[in-house]
Design brief:
Chain lengths: 162, 119
Amino acid sequence: MSAVVPEVEVPASEDVLAVTEDVWMALLGDDAPLLPRTVAPGAPFDVAAWSAATTISGGWQGVVTVELDEALARRLTMRMLALPADEQASDSDVADAVGELVNMVGGNVKSLMPGPSVLSLPAVAAGRAAFSSDSALACRVDLVWQDAPVRVSVHVPQEGPR
Amino acid sequence: MKILIADDSRVMRQIVIRTLRQAGHGGHDIVEAENGRQALEMVQTEAPDLVLSDWNMPEMNGIDCLSALRASGSQVAFGFVTSEGSEEMRERAASAGAAFLIAKPFTPEAFDDALRSVI
């Protein structure tokens, strides 16, 4: 975990971790633990990935992003759809599943922060996440599940001159 | 009993159906809508006994769907299944006429408790 904290209210890394663990356990069960992963501050997500983001606006402003390893995104989708092992998840199913994942994490982060706010529909991409240059990293949680990396990050509007 | 599940995510609709089964409510007829507008139409055409709706959806969100239903005179039982479980959202849901709000991530027990309040 690491955080670069600007001068606005931001969620605690511990809270984002707890939210992520709750969502993860609900979706994937507890047969394998979600473990911390040590990543250098500022390091980009280092694997081919799916990414999804949702924006919170109103009483609190922020963007919650989830990035996932490709194989993990497909396993997550198969588990969420309860597909048999000999079937493949389509790209649209993966986009749907990853979008729902960030919706759950983002909705719970929104509940932790001052309101009233509005949660956007998720935006999903096959690839790494892109972050606006006028936002600052507030919180980042790097995790690993069955050797596959997962990253949850929260960005907030950057204050002051850039 | 007929249950209308409204969610723009096919994955989440599947999870809700599976969770209903795990909660001991697998014997109900299920119909599905992809957004609030479709749900609004299907309440007329399908006459469900209960609507389980996401909050954030394209075309029409869940709270606008519920408001439109009540404005049209429909008193169909309506519950939210949403990632937004704050007190503020629960109050908005209740004020609009929702019977309950199940926050994601959820458990079969949460579904059972909620459904027992309307069955």
